[in-house]
Amino acid sequence: MKYYAVKTGKTPGIYEDWETCKEQVEGYPGAKYKSFKTKEEAERFIGLVSNTNASSKQDSKTDVPYAFVDGSYNPETKVYGCGGYLFFKGKYYLIQGSGSGPEASMRNVAGEILGACKAIATAASLKIDGLKLYYDYAGIENWVTGVWKCNNEWTRKYKEYVRKYIDAGLEITFVHTKGHSGIAGNELVDRLAKLSVGIVEQKVLDEIEELKKKLGIIS
Q1: Region at 146 (left for phi over 0; alpha for psi -120 to 50; beta for the rest)
Q2: What is the architecture, at CATH level 2, of domain 3-46?
Q3: How far is CA 147 from its chain centroid?
Protein backbone atom coordinates (compact mmCIF):
# COMPACT_ATOMS: atom_id res chain seq x y z
CA MET A 1 0.00 0.00 0.00
CA LYS A 2 1.19 3.52 -0.81
CA TYR A 3 0.55 6.78 1.01
CA TYR A 4 0.36 9.94 -1.07
CA ALA A 5 1.47 13.05 0.81
CA VAL A 6 0.42 16.47 -0.45
CA LYS A 7 2.55 19.18 1.12
CA THR A 8 1.36 21.98 -1.15
CA GLY A 9 -1.92 21.65 -3.01
CA LYS A 10 -5.64 22.37 -2.87
CA THR A 11 -6.03 20.39 0.37
CA PRO A 12 -2.71 19.33 1.95
CA GLY A 13 -2.80 15.99 3.73
CA ILE A 14 -2.23 12.27 3.30
CA TYR A 15 -4.22 10.19 0.83
CA GLU A 16 -4.40 6.46 0.25
CA ASP A 17 -5.09 6.47 -3.49
CA TRP A 18 -3.56 8.31 -6.42
CA GLU A 19 -6.82 9.58 -7.91
CA THR A 20 -7.74 11.51 -4.75
CA CYS A 21 -4.20 12.84 -4.48
CA LYS A 22 -4.28 13.87 -8.13
CA GLU A 23 -7.40 15.96 -7.52
CA GLN A 24 -5.47 17.98 -4.92
CA VAL A 25 -2.42 18.77 -7.07
CA GLU A 26 -3.54 18.79 -10.70
CA GLY A 27 -3.48 22.36 -11.99
CA TYR A 28 -2.26 23.74 -8.65
CA PRO A 29 0.75 26.09 -9.11
CA GLY A 30 3.85 24.86 -7.28
CA ALA A 31 2.20 21.69 -6.00
CA LYS A 32 4.45 19.49 -3.86
CA TYR A 33 3.57 15.84 -3.36
CA LYS A 34 5.21 12.44 -3.10
CA SER A 35 4.30 8.80 -2.48
CA PHE A 36 5.67 6.75 0.42
CA LYS A 37 5.54 3.15 1.59
CA THR A 38 4.72 4.09 5.19
CA LYS A 39 2.37 6.63 6.74
CA GLU A 40 5.12 7.89 9.05
CA GLU A 41 7.31 8.83 6.07
CA ALA A 42 4.37 10.63 4.48
CA GLU A 43 3.66 12.53 7.70
CA ARG A 44 7.28 13.62 7.98
CA PHE A 45 7.21 14.90 4.40
CA ILE A 46 4.36 17.30 5.15
CA GLY A 47 5.81 18.29 8.52
CA LEU A 48 3.82 16.01 10.80
CA VAL A 49 4.84 13.14 13.01
CA SER A 50 2.17 11.02 14.68
CA ASN A 51 2.58 9.07 17.91
CA THR A 52 -0.66 7.60 19.22
CA ASN A 53 0.93 5.63 22.05
CA ALA A 54 1.48 8.24 24.73
CA SER A 55 2.56 7.00 28.13
CA SER A 56 2.50 8.64 31.51
CA LYS A 57 6.21 9.38 31.19
CA GLN A 58 6.79 13.10 30.69
CA ASP A 59 9.40 14.83 28.53
CA SER A 60 10.20 17.43 31.20
CA LYS A 61 13.59 15.88 31.90
CA THR A 62 14.68 16.39 28.29
CA ASP A 63 15.13 19.32 25.94
CA VAL A 64 12.14 18.27 23.83
CA PRO A 65 9.60 21.14 23.63
CA TYR A 66 6.09 19.84 24.24
CA ALA A 67 2.60 21.04 25.04
CA PHE A 68 -0.56 19.59 26.56
CA VAL A 69 -3.95 21.05 25.57
CA ASP A 70 -7.60 20.38 26.37
CA GLY A 71 -10.97 22.01 25.82
CA SER A 72 -14.11 22.58 27.87
CA TYR A 73 -17.60 24.06 27.52
CA ASN A 74 -19.96 25.74 29.97
CA PRO A 75 -23.57 25.00 28.90
CA GLU A 76 -24.95 27.65 31.24
CA THR A 77 -23.00 30.53 29.69
CA LYS A 78 -22.44 28.90 26.26
CA VAL A 79 -18.73 29.70 26.54
CA TYR A 80 -16.03 27.36 25.26
CA GLY A 81 -12.44 27.50 26.42
CA CYS A 82 -9.07 25.83 26.57
CA GLY A 83 -6.38 25.02 29.05
CA GLY A 84 -2.82 24.01 28.39
CA TYR A 85 0.84 24.53 28.97
CA LEU A 86 4.01 24.43 26.91
CA PHE A 87 7.37 23.28 28.26
CA PHE A 88 10.54 24.68 26.69
CA LYS A 89 14.08 24.99 28.04
CA GLY A 90 13.07 24.34 31.63
CA LYS A 91 10.17 26.81 31.65
CA TYR A 92 6.41 26.28 31.63
CA TYR A 93 4.15 28.60 29.66
CA LEU A 94 0.50 28.37 30.71
CA ILE A 95 -2.12 28.55 27.96
CA GLN A 96 -5.74 29.59 28.49
CA GLY A 97 -8.46 31.24 26.45
CA SER A 98 -12.20 31.30 25.82
CA GLY A 99 -14.81 32.37 23.30
CA SER A 100 -18.55 32.56 22.70
CA GLY A 101 -18.96 33.12 18.96
CA PRO A 102 -20.97 30.93 16.57
CA GLU A 103 -18.22 28.31 16.75
CA ALA A 104 -19.43 27.63 20.31
CA SER A 105 -21.98 25.33 18.67
CA MET A 106 -19.09 22.82 18.60
CA ARG A 107 -19.03 23.01 22.41
CA ASN A 108 -15.84 21.58 23.96
CA VAL A 109 -14.40 20.77 20.52
CA ALA A 110 -14.13 24.52 19.86
CA GLY A 111 -12.03 24.69 23.02
CA GLU A 112 -9.83 21.81 21.87
CA ILE A 113 -9.15 23.67 18.62
CA LEU A 114 -8.44 26.93 20.44
CA GLY A 115 -5.97 25.19 22.74
CA ALA A 116 -4.06 23.59 19.88
CA CYS A 117 -3.88 26.89 18.00
CA LYS A 118 -2.63 28.76 21.05
CA ALA A 119 0.02 26.12 21.78
CA ILE A 120 1.29 26.24 18.20
CA ALA A 121 1.32 30.05 18.17
CA THR A 122 3.22 30.05 21.48
CA ALA A 123 5.78 27.63 20.04
CA ALA A 124 6.26 29.89 17.02
CA SER A 125 6.66 32.98 19.21
CA LEU A 126 9.42 31.16 21.11
CA LYS A 127 11.08 30.27 17.78
CA ILE A 128 10.68 26.54 18.40
CA ASP A 129 11.16 24.45 15.26
CA GLY A 130 9.76 21.18 16.63
CA LEU A 131 6.89 20.57 19.06
CA LYS A 132 5.24 17.52 20.62
CA LEU A 133 1.54 18.31 20.95
CA TYR A 134 -0.37 16.12 23.41
CA TYR A 135 -4.15 16.08 22.89
CA ASP A 136 -7.10 13.84 23.74
CA TYR A 137 -9.57 14.75 20.97
CA ALA A 138 -8.75 12.90 17.73
CA GLY A 139 -9.77 15.74 15.42
CA ILE A 140 -6.80 17.83 16.55
CA GLU A 141 -4.58 15.52 14.51
CA ASN A 142 -7.01 13.99 12.03
CA TRP A 143 -8.27 17.23 10.50
CA VAL A 144 -4.71 18.34 9.81
CA THR A 145 -3.54 15.05 8.30
CA GLY A 146 -6.67 14.64 6.19
CA VAL A 147 -7.86 11.48 7.95
CA TRP A 148 -11.02 13.41 8.84
CA LYS A 149 -12.75 15.67 6.35
CA CYS A 150 -13.20 19.28 7.45
CA ASN A 151 -16.97 19.60 7.27
CA ASN A 152 -17.46 23.13 8.54
CA GLU A 153 -15.92 26.58 8.44
CA TRP A 154 -14.13 26.25 11.78
CA THR A 155 -12.44 22.91 11.13
CA ARG A 156 -11.30 24.18 7.72
CA LYS A 157 -9.87 27.33 9.33
CA TYR A 158 -8.16 25.20 11.97
CA LYS A 159 -6.46 23.05 9.34
CA GLU A 160 -5.38 26.12 7.37
CA TYR A 161 -4.03 27.74 10.56
CA VAL A 162 -1.91 24.73 11.51
CA ARG A 163 -0.71 24.20 7.93
CA LYS A 164 0.50 27.82 7.85
CA TYR A 165 2.93 27.12 10.68
CA ILE A 166 3.99 23.75 9.28
CA ASP A 167 4.73 25.33 5.90
CA ALA A 168 6.81 27.95 7.75
CA GLY A 169 9.01 25.17 9.17
CA LEU A 170 7.41 24.07 12.46
CA GLU A 171 7.44 20.27 12.75
CA ILE A 172 4.57 19.05 14.91
CA THR A 173 4.51 15.61 16.50
CA PHE A 174 0.93 14.79 17.44
CA VAL A 175 0.63 12.54 20.49
CA HIS A 176 -2.76 11.18 21.48
CA THR A 177 -3.48 10.79 25.19
CA LYS A 178 -6.51 9.07 26.61
CA GLY A 179 -8.60 11.52 28.62
CA HIS A 180 -8.77 11.06 32.40
CA SER A 181 -6.12 8.34 32.28
CA GLY A 182 -3.99 9.65 35.13
CA ILE A 183 -1.38 11.43 33.00
CA ALA A 184 -0.55 14.48 35.12
CA GLY A 185 -0.14 16.86 32.19
CA ASN A 186 -3.48 15.92 30.70
CA GLU A 187 -5.25 16.12 34.05
CA LEU A 188 -3.86 19.61 34.69
CA VAL A 189 -4.97 21.06 31.35
CA ASP A 190 -8.42 19.53 31.85
CA ARG A 191 -8.77 21.58 35.06
CA LEU A 192 -7.31 24.71 33.44
CA ALA A 193 -9.85 24.39 30.62
CA LYS A 194 -12.67 24.27 33.17
CA LEU A 195 -11.36 27.46 34.77
CA SER A 196 -11.28 29.20 31.40
CA VAL A 197 -15.05 28.70 30.97
CA GLY A 198 -15.89 29.88 34.47
CA ILE A 199 -16.20 26.53 36.23
CA VAL A 200 -14.48 27.68 39.40
CA GLU A 201 -14.88 25.18 42.20
CA GLN A 202 -12.57 24.82 45.18
CA LYS A 203 -11.99 21.19 44.28
CA VAL A 204 -10.78 22.21 40.81
CA LEU A 205 -8.49 24.89 42.26
CA ASP A 206 -7.02 22.44 44.76
CA GLU A 207 -6.42 19.84 42.04
CA ILE A 208 -4.66 22.42 39.86
CA GLU A 209 -2.23 23.29 42.64
CA GLU A 210 -1.61 19.62 43.40
CA LEU A 211 -0.93 18.81 39.74
CA LYS A 212 1.36 21.82 39.34
CA LYS A 213 3.45 20.58 42.26
CA LYS A 214 3.55 17.09 40.76
CA LEU A 215 4.86 18.50 37.48
CA GLY A 216 7.25 20.92 39.17
CA ILE A 217 5.43 24.03 37.96
CA ILE A 218 5.97 27.03 40.23
CA SER A 219 3.04 29.47 40.25
Answers
A1: left
A2: 3-Layer(aba) Sandwich (3.40)
A3: 15
